[in-house]
Design brief:
196 residues; alpha/beta; three-stranded parallel sheet; two-stranded parallel ribbon; 7 strands; globular; binds adenosine-5'-diphosphate
């Protein structure tokens, strides 16, 4: 599992690390965004919260992750990105994993100070249909709210998983490759030959 504030680089690292480990990266933010673009019922519901920088209610999110974890490609392992984000989600995740006969091996907290997060998020652009666009929730006022929500609702997960002996804190300042190397070292998994 990857834990860390918005802008810490979870999405980027999740793709690389999941690729190296040969497991799917399961990102609740990506699943929500796909539903928003597809204008599904879930997407319409989630968009209101996302645009405000608030968390989508647990009952929506937890059921969605539970379904995703039960898919065949997650049987041999998975990397969670952006979930859980509240202690209640973490507790429900524990129950879902027990039912599936799964468990968490490690929780990696990407640590970046708040000034740097604001800089990264306000400068972030994504390539959509050949054009660079700003994510709706990367607007300054929404960024401030997301960071506040992180501090209040998500940051306590660090202590929660530390108490379970699962937490590794990773300094997430530096190049993408440097951060990936630190993560792989924390996982005790050497890079595969031929990987860049
Ligand atoms: P970031 O980590 O940069 O905030 P994400 O893509 O993970 O970006 O999340 C974007 C938004 O999607 C969040 O601000 C929130 O509204 C919603 N979201 C994502 N994951 C969850 C979750 N586990 N619980 C509730 N809401 C979530």
């Amino acid at each position: 599992m990857l834990l860390g504030p918005p802008g810490a680089g979870k999405g980027t690292q999740a793709q690389i690390i999941a690729g190296r480990l040969g497991v799917p990266a399961i990102s609740t933010g990506d699943i929500f965004r796909a539903n928003v673009s597809g204008q599904t019922e879930l997407g319409v519901k989630a968009k209101v919260y996302m645009d405000a920088g608030d968390l989508v209610p647990d009952e929506v999110t937890v059921a969605m992750v539970k379904d995703r974890l039960a898919e065949p490609d997650a049987k041999a392992g998975f990397l969670l990105d952006g979930f859980p984000r509240t202690i209640a989600q973490a507790e429900q995740l524990r129950g879902s994993l027990e039912q599936l006969g799964q468990h968490l091996d490690r929780v990696l907290e990407l640590v970046v100070e708040e000034d740097e997060l604001v800089r990264r998020l306000s400068g972030r652009r994504m390539l959509v249909d050949g054009e660079w666009v700003q994510r709706d929730d990367d607007k300054p006022e929404t960024v401030r709210r997301r960071l506040e929500v992180y501090r209040e609702q998500t940051a306590p997960l660090s202590g929660f998983y530390e108490g379970e002996g699962l937490l590794s804190r990773i300094d997430a300042i530096g190049s993408i490759e440097e951060v990936t190397d630190r993560v792989m070292t924390a996982l005790g998994t050497p890079g595969r030959p031929g990987d860049s």
